Amino acid sequence: MELFPSMPYADWTGTRETLHRFAQVVGKIRLAASPRRNHWWNVPFHLTGRGITTRPMGLTEQGDFFCVDFDFTDHRLVVTSGAGSEASFPLHGLSVAAFYGRLTGALAQVGVDVLVERPYPFDLPDARRPFAEDEEHCTYDPAAAHRYWVVLSQVNLVLEAYAARWAGKTSPVHHFWHTFDIAVTRFSDTVVAHPPEVDAVTREAYSREVISAGFWFGDPDYPEPAFYSYTAPEPAGLATWPLRPEAAFWQARKSGSHLAVLPYERVRAAASPRGEVLAFYESAFLAGARSAGWSLAVDSCPDGITDVVAG
After folding, report:
1. Fewest CB atoms less than 10 Å from the CB: which of 21, 38, 88, 217?
2. Could you tell me which InterPro entries the record lists for this protein (predicted)?
3. How far apart are CA 191 and CA 171, in angstroms?
């Protein structure tokens, strides 16, 4: 198996757009049925040995819970309950509307009753169209879907290695269904004072200073896959700091902030792709941490070891 297989943005547009909406359908169920965590850590998906999962959710006083899994090996959606019941259906050949209907039926079949407050896409061009009416997005190429999961899984392991180098507060490595990226975030203890007009989702996600590292498959503004990092709030002079490797660069965003970017294709051509990505993440982190005045000596954690004797 190739590390970081080819994933050209234009080659799987239909499948990507359909999968993104499938993921948002399931993600909104996760949002509705999971206990809320700080910084919305309860909401994203996690990786499994066959796809992505919501993890168990919906615990009741009777002890009931359920889980929804995408299986990108057999290309099925699987709904299971703690009582042992299961319902599943194939992912290929479905529009978003049909997927939404099949999932609703599968949940009912295993005895799950969950209310999604807003069954519409989030922050997508068709955000005003209900999932139940979307017949437009109906492409599912099993090879592309499997490759999407393989790339996520490989990046996940690199992000785990990067996360291990910091002993301070760190998020899980998780896959965001709203933006379709995978990321891990390091936090400082500094509280961020947001102005009153900032929305509640953003206020909670960025209530502390953060430096996030991740990967996304591209979007219309940047139509190619890439590794990325950002610091929020952005300290003065961030984009003047050097990045490694040479292929990395600072990209100005519409908001006026900057994103550290390392193109996926440049990494694929490197002698040590994994090493290139780790070097990039560390250089972007140091740029943000030093600019913002983080205490690096306290929370640095080489090779995931905090106790040198135990190590």
Report:
1. 38
2. DUF5996
3. 16
The Cα 70–Cα 89 span in angstroms is 10
Burial status of residue 28 (CB atoms within 10 A of its CB: 0-12, 13-18, 19 or more): buried
Pairwise CA distance, residues 5 & 175, whole Å: 19
Residues 83-90, mean pLDDT to the nearest whole number = 97
Which pair of tokens denotes residue 196? 């009153």
Strand segments, DSSP code E, in 217-248 are 226-232
| Half-sphere exposure in the Cβ direction for 112 (13 Å, CA) | 31
First and final CA of the chain: distance in angstroms?
32
Nearest-Å Rg of the Cα atoms of the chain is 20
Write the pLDDT tens digit of every residue in 244-303.
999 999 999 888 899 999 999 999 999 999 999 999 999 999 999 999 999 887 788 877
List the one residue out of 206, 212, 205, 171 whose CA is nearest residue 192. 206
Give the residue from 275, 280, 268 showing the smallest Cα distance to 227: 280
